[in-house]
Fold this sequence. Notes:
single chain, 327 residues, alpha/beta, 6-stranded parallel sheet, 12 helices
Amino acid sequence: MKDVARLAGVSTSTVSHVINNDRFVSDAIREKVEAAVISLNYAPSAVARSLKLNQTRTIGMLLTASSNPFYSELVRGVERSCFERGYSLVLCNTEGDEQRMNRNLEMLMQKRVDGLLLLCTETHQPAADIMRRYPGIPTVMMDWAPLEGQCDLIQDNSLLGGDIATQHLIDKGYTRIACITGPLDKTPARLRLEGYRTAMARAGLAIPAEYEVTADFEFAGGFRAMETILALPERPHAVFISNDAMAVGAYQALWHAGIAIPGDMALIGYDDIELARYMTPPLTTIHQPKDELGELAIDVLIHRMAQPEQAQQLLQLTPELIERGSA
């Protein structure tokens, strides 16, 4: 910047104003500075700027990779919201591995991200010694139980969603209703199962123990879980599946078995991924507002960065029934 100022015959602050366009500079001076910038092939240093401002305009996100399209659709909303607000997103995949999660967390902290979004796993929490080394980093957690401290939490009302899904099947006249649930070490899976049980109890419908099948929120898990249900001596007539990825796997298992949807077995999913509307028949499901979730997460994080002492926030999004052809 000093070289540009020397060549243009102006001060470094004038060069800064021209580059950042944050103060009036006459056209003649601006042309001199821009000519010097081109002549010297000058590019501003983001590192230098971040050191001066103590702000990098970057947000770090820790995510467990999955074949479940829900996560890619959610990240798309987060990245779009970052871009619209002038931030860059650094995305790290933990692969469900605690060591990798902590190494990525340390890397993000060392790069001095302005804030963190966490969407990984409840069974592996960030190492306490890392969090102590970088105190006060603004953090928003999405859809899982919060850490101790000043962290905001945004989640889907999974209890209500499971209730709505099951009640829809009951309203359609089904009485033998099974549930394929996600891993029960995850809060959303537990709450969706509880919502299923609540709706069944309210309707006075029994739940045989074998009608609750635990899977892993992935395509293959849904396939295997449906195979387990099909092997039962008394099959259910309808199944609430705790996410759409498993519902896709369940469709495949039913197709292999020659079982028609919804004629022989009705299905309802959860998440409303984009693929759901293109399945045959289109999947009835519970809509999670993924774009709104991403936008809200970024807005809450930016607000937390501006007001770090504010009390912890718990924000809950309301699920909605999307009725299509599978029930």
